[in-house]
Please model this.
Amino acid sequence: MDAIAKRCREGGFDQHLIGLEVLSMDGKRATAKITVGESVANLSGNLHGGAIATLVDDVGTLAIISADKQNRPGVTTDLNVSYFAPGRAGDVILIEATALKSGRTLAYVSVDLRRESDGTLLAQGRMTKFL
Amino acid sequence: MDAIAKRCREGGFDQHLIGLEVLSMDGKRATAKITVGESVANLSGNLHGGAIATLVDDVGTLAIISADKQNRPGVTTDLNVSYFAPGRAGDVILIEATALKSGRTLAYVSVDLRRESDGTLLAQGRMTKFL
Amino acid sequence: MDAIAKRCREGGFDQHLIGLEVLSMDGKRATAKITVGESVANLSGNLHGGAIATLVDDVGTLAIISADKQNRPGVTTDLNVSYFAPGRAGDVILIEATALKSGRTLAYVSVDLRRESDGTLLAQGRMTKFL
Amino acid sequence: MDAIAKRCREGGFDQHLIGLEVLSMDGKRATAKITVGESVANLSGNLHGGAIATLVDDVGTLAIISADKQNRPGVTTDLNVSYFAPGRAGDVILIEATALKSGRTLAYVSVDLRRESDGTLLAQGRMTKFL
Model:
């Protein structure tokens, strides 16, 4: 997990998710958290919709890797996100990814983003990967 | 357009889309291009799926602003992306956003990402915004 | 609930969901079940992807109605479904819808379809409605 | 094409798309039309969101079959629809599906639904199939 988290933090676009901390990778689940700072903000100072999509992709991929017997990350075919409420500057955001199916050639994951302080669901995404 | 492009380039998470150039904003359309470099790459060196989603969001928002009489950017309710082929390091990517509907309270946009050299469609996204 | 279920069964396109039975509508949740028969089958005899999308729409709307203080059904802006495994002829399918957000102008719902016999998740959808 | 259209009209759930007429299947495209009648209506008498999703699935599949060298229909992994305006009772709806990618193992299609009388875009969907 440490190695994967390290790669996530250091790789190209992922390096911009400053402060992202992977909390767990176990069975079909992966969890992480990040504090909303300038590097992931939109013009209003809230967590950028693109950063949320990137978190769905990255933490979702960790859950898919964890669920797959061969730990394959796969290639994304489809990703969607619905946005419910803004993540404000300084908010700690919990990202919880659960693999919905881990098959031979396809894997699916659902990802919730919540404000840690009160548990409010801020966004939910789903991703499909071809393994 | 220059002012908006400048904001896009300088704002928090958007600053990581290094080299993003807005080419046009006119009527219901906005176009931009970006060369795949390290700042937007995934671990394979290709354009990161999260960067693609961010481009759908940002360039799609420019089309929605352009289509709306009051130039409102709105707030995203839903975003989806399908991924067809990788954007390789060094590829110039054209992003073309077309507003599908610009209403009083809701706006929708479709966004194509193509490799400039041969026109290959790499990804397509759609976004819904509440104005 | 009976009145709503009756309307669901009798209304135009919904009348084709033969055997659909609403089990509960309570707080932010609605549940229903249907046995896969010829009226909802595809050419392979399995539950049709369009029927699944229709179930996401209908049972999801019941959860949104239940969650909203004024019981507004709203108008759909976005709907998505991921498909994991087929619903076979004769399978009893449980549909469980949970409102993710019930706001003043927007409501969101997530819907799971499971095979009752073994709990296998067959599909998951999400819907956004403008109230 | 006639054989396929016939199967579409006669198969289980598809039989409820009363009046669906396939107009063309050529290269990467398929087109069809349907008049909004009681069999495909929601409680307001408009084209049901589930019927729209079913049309995206069915006409989209025809485009995928047409684009694939082996004419494989595939199995749906993901489907999404955005809804822009209602299809009213009596409206003739044109459904235009264009394959976005037709690969060895994955195919993608975009589907537009328009009101024939004035060309208004009523809905747009995208579908991914595993071949």
Summary: The longest strand of chain C covers residues 92-102. Residues 2-130 of chain C form a domain with the Thiol Ester Dehydrase; Chain A fold (CATH 3.10.129.10). Chain C touches chain B at residues 77-78, 80, 105-106, 128, 130 (CB under 8 Å). The helical segments of chain C are 2-10, 49-67.
